[in-house]
Structure formats: C-alpha cells, structure tokens
Specification:
By secondary structure, this protein is mainly beta. The chain is 7% helix and 40% strand. A seven-stranded mixed beta sheet has the order 5-4-7-8-2-3-6. Strands 1-27-34-29-32 form a five-stranded antiparallel beta sheet, with no helix packed on it. The longest helix has 11 residues, at 365-375.
C-alpha cells in the first residue's frame, strides 16, 4: 500500500547548526584542483600538497599544521562520529576538515556518492568546523560532527583527517581510531554533549554537573492538524523526551466525538484503517523531538480529528493528545511565527530566519531575501576562490524557476567577478553535498527583482540530485547563487566553481 505521507521532518535535520556556515575556500594559484576526496580523482597540488606564495618560489611556509586528532562515537545511540583536531596555521585561515571513513583494514568505507543520488562510492567528504577558525593562528579541540555515520556504517573503525585552509593548502594527514562511547549507569557522571559517554537506555543526563537519572516517557506538547491556504494539509508535532529515545507515534483517526473511524491512507478514496504507526526513532535531540507529515487530500476529507500517543524504546507510553482539523493560523508581517510549521505567514512573506531556537517573525519576502543576501559571503572567483561549503537551513526566500516550487530551505552565495569571465561552471555535484539541490544564478537586486541568468535542477547525464549550471560571457559584477533544497529538512552542500 502506498504511503499517504511525505517523509518526516526530523529535529536533528531541522535545527542542528553549523556555525561556520558557508566557509569560503580560496584556491588562488591552484594548478590541479582536487575534488573532495583528493587522490587520483581530483588531481594534485604542487609541491606535494602545498601552495607556495608568489608562484611557488620561496617565501614562508604557511601550510596548516595538524598537531593532534581524535575521533569518538557520539550521540544518544553512538550513531555519530565527532572528530576533534588541534593545530596551528600561520596564515590564520583554516577553513574545513577533510575526513575519510576507514574500515578495520584501512580501506575507505563507501558512505557518500561522488554524484549525489547515485550509489555511495567514496568515504571522503569535506566538513566545516562547528566554529569558524578564521583569524586564529592556533586551534585546540575544534570539531566536526558526522551525523549518523556509525549507525548506518558500523564497519567504520578509523578516520583519516586533513586540515584545509582558505588558500587550499593542506596539512599532513593523520589517521586515528574511532573510540567507542562508554555507557554511564544511573547516578554516574555524564556528558551532556553525548561525546565522552552516554547514559544507559531509559536514563537522561540531568543537572549540573550532569548525572544519569531516570528519563521518563515522551510527551507530545503541541499537535497541529490543519489545512493551508496554499492548498495542502499538514500534521506537525513538538514534544519533550528527556532521554531522547522516542521511537513511535501512534495516530488514531477519530470523528468529531473522538470515536475511532477509518481513514484513507493510500489515497484511493476508500477509508481502510483506523490507525497509523509512525517511526520517530532518532528524531530526538537535547530533550526535544519534532516532526511533520503532509497527508493526502482524501485522508483529510475522511478524518476530522487526530489522536496521538507517543512511545519510547523501553515501551513507555506518553499521554494521549488530540487535535481537530482546522485552518492553519496565518500570521502577518511583524508577528512571531513558528519555523517548524504550526502556523504560516501570509502570502508574500516568510518566517525569517526560519531557524528553531531563535526569534522568528513574518517578514515581506523582499526583506527576507535582502537580509539573506546581505549576510551571504562573497565567493570572489576572479581572486581565485573556488568553493563554498555550508548548509541549507531556515526559511525559503527564493522560488526556483526550473523545478517544482516548494517552500524548502535555501542559501545564498554571492559570486563576485571583478572582470568578465568567458566560461564558468557552478556545481553541487560532489560527495560533500548531502541533499538534492537546485541552483539558480541571479543578477541585479537580490530582493525579488533580480534577473534569472541560469537555473538547473539535476545535472544532465550525471546525477539525479546534484545541480550544474554553465555560464558563458559573464560580465563583471556580483551575482547571487541560490542553492535550494529539494527536501524539507535541507542539508549540507559544497558549491564548486571552475573555468574549464
């Protein structure tokens, strides 16, 4: 039976923040531009991986130095890998970490696809640090978090790490074993970041300093079941769960008197089931879980009320909550709004910045776009910059013209050309892009009055998810490159620029 819901919107995908959003990797003087993963696939850098100043003749060695590295299993189920590095950089422009996932024999574990949408065929990707290192000549225990890789690929035994600076210079690589994550018993000390250890199942890290204590059942604190003026319907929930082990939401379909009825799950016009069990395993983080579904029209027409009961991994059941079908609340400009979708802004405006945990308000689209563009970093191509590494998150400010319009997360990179460029290729078709993307290049004011120069959804003949645009005879100026997510949860991306 075909599912009647789109994929869920999970908390882990919606509110984890990469603080060093859109790190610019300047590769001036590069004679062989390496793709993420390095090695034979991407060419080599001169002088064994160093970029020498002034054309490679003499001068100080500004290559980043990697002094120490560690890797640990992390997260509530040990599903993540946290990599921490210590080192120095005389040029104070360390920008990213290249991480290769290795098995017990030292071979790369296929975790990523060089062309998004294809089968995984490489274990190497680039990651931004959680805090920017720009301007720092030394760094200690700075980290990147590789989400869910250990759970999906238990064969990972070690990682090979390399520090990259903004000029493309690379440190020597270091290979370190992934340390297991100890479990702490009730009453024992615990790490609230879930890196050094985690509490046993059913327990939560509480208090200061943290001690493992009984967690308790999950609780749905807010349930929204609504039609929207845009013509679709939504189910949204927010909950609390101290031990982050919620596993299931049991949806029961009810009439206006809370009596069970059948709902149309498969969209064929015939109601056939009175319940639906939805898996929320892994959606909890920091004691909260959120998510969403988009039911079919026929389901909404057949079910006037939803009743929901949460359950956790230990079988504990939270209190039952219910919500009648209603119209989605519409907020006007200046009013507070919920970036998780329990309300919506009126047409022509957006909930900005669209990031949970921050102050959000409805703003006219032109204002939201301008603020996003003003905050976007500049990729100065004619000065040698070639990469932008970041994350698609927050409110949708732009609507692509070459794909189905959806209010999904997007981001902006400002492309600066100090002189005309005869040919330029922009792409997200690489192993460091973890989401289906749409690329749009705009010229003119970044407020909705811009001109679309190029737009691409899928790289023709290469991928079903990476996007590539080829531009010719571009005049000097500054362009807005909009990277849209084709999925509601967004994700990380690497935008590459080249002049073939």
């Amino acid at each position: 039976m075909a599912p009647f819901f789109f994929p869920p919107l999970h908390l882990s995908a919606m509110h984890r923040s990469l603080a060093s959003l859109l790190l610019m990797l300047s590769l001036a003087g590069l004679t062989g531009c390496p793709a993420p993963g390095g090695g034979a696939d991407g060419g080599t850098l001169p002088d064994g991986g160093k970029l020498l100043p002034d054309g490679g003749s003499g001068g100080p060695d500004l290559t980043p130095r990697l002094a120490a590295a560690t890797a640990r299993a992390a997260g509530r189920r040990g599903q993540d890998v946290v990599v921490r590095v210590t080192g120095t950089d005389a040029n104070a422009d360390v920008a990213a970490l290249e991480v290769a996932l290795l098995d017990g024999a030292g071979a790369e574990v296929a975790a990523y696809a060089r062309n998004p949408g294809k089968d995984p065929n490489t274990g190497t990707a680039w990651w931004p640090f959680e805090a920017s290192l720009a301007g720092k000549k030394s760094f200690t225990d700075v980290q990147v978090r590789l989400e869910d890789v250990r759970e999906a690929l238990p064969a990972i035994a070690s990682v090979r790490v390399t520090v990259l600076d903004a000029r493309g210079q690379r440190s020597e690589a270091a290979t370190v074993e992934v340390q297991d994550q100890p479990e702490a018993q009730l009453g024992e000390g615990c790490d609230k970041e879930l890196v050094l250890n985690r509490c046993i199942a059913g327990a939560a890290c509480k208090g200061t300093p943290g001690l493992c204590a009984e967690g308790g059942p999950p609780v749905v604190t807010k349930l929204t079941y609504a039609r929207t003026d845009a013509g679709y319907s939504v189910i949204r929930w927010t909950g609390t769960d101290a031990d982050d082990d919620a596993t299931e939401l049991q949806f029961t379909f009810a009439d206006a008197n809370d009596q069970p009825i059948n709902g149309d799950l498969d969209g064929d016009g015939t109601p056939e089931a009175s319940q639906y069990l939805h898996d929320v395993t892994g959606s909890g983080e920091d004691g909260k879980f959120v998510g969403g579904l988009e039911p079919s029209f026929s389901f909404v027409d057949s079910v006037p009320r939803l009743v929901v009961k949460p359950k956790d991994a230990a079988g504990n059941e939270g209190a039952v909550v219910s919500s009648p079908l209603a119209w989605m609340p519409v907020r006007t400009a200046g009013q507070s709004c919920d970036p998780l979708g329990s309300d919506t802004c009126k047409a022509g405006s957006a909930c900005y910045p669209g990031v949970p945990g921050t102050s959000n308000a409805c703003q006219p689209l032109a204002t939201a776009r301008k603020r996003r563009c003003d905050a976007a970093p500049v990729l100065d191509f004619t000065a040698g910059e070639r990469f932008a590494l970041g994350e698609l998150r927050g409110a949708s400010g732009f609507t692509p013209t070459c794909a189905e319009a959806q209010a999904y997360p997007d981001s902006v990179v400002k492309l600066k050309l100090s002189e005309p460029v005869a040919r330029l290729v922009l792409t997200t078709d690489n192993a460091s892009t973890a989401v289906d993307t749409i690329l749009t290049v705009l010229s003119g004011p970044c407020d909705g009055n811009a001109t679309v120069v190029a737009c691409n959804d899928d790289s023709v003949g290469v991928s079903t998810q990476g996007s590539t645009v080829e531009l010719t005879n571009l005049p000097a100026g500054t362009y807005a490159v909009v990277i849209d997510s084709y999925k509601p949860e967004g994700g990380r991306f690497l935008l590459q620029a080249s002049e073939p």
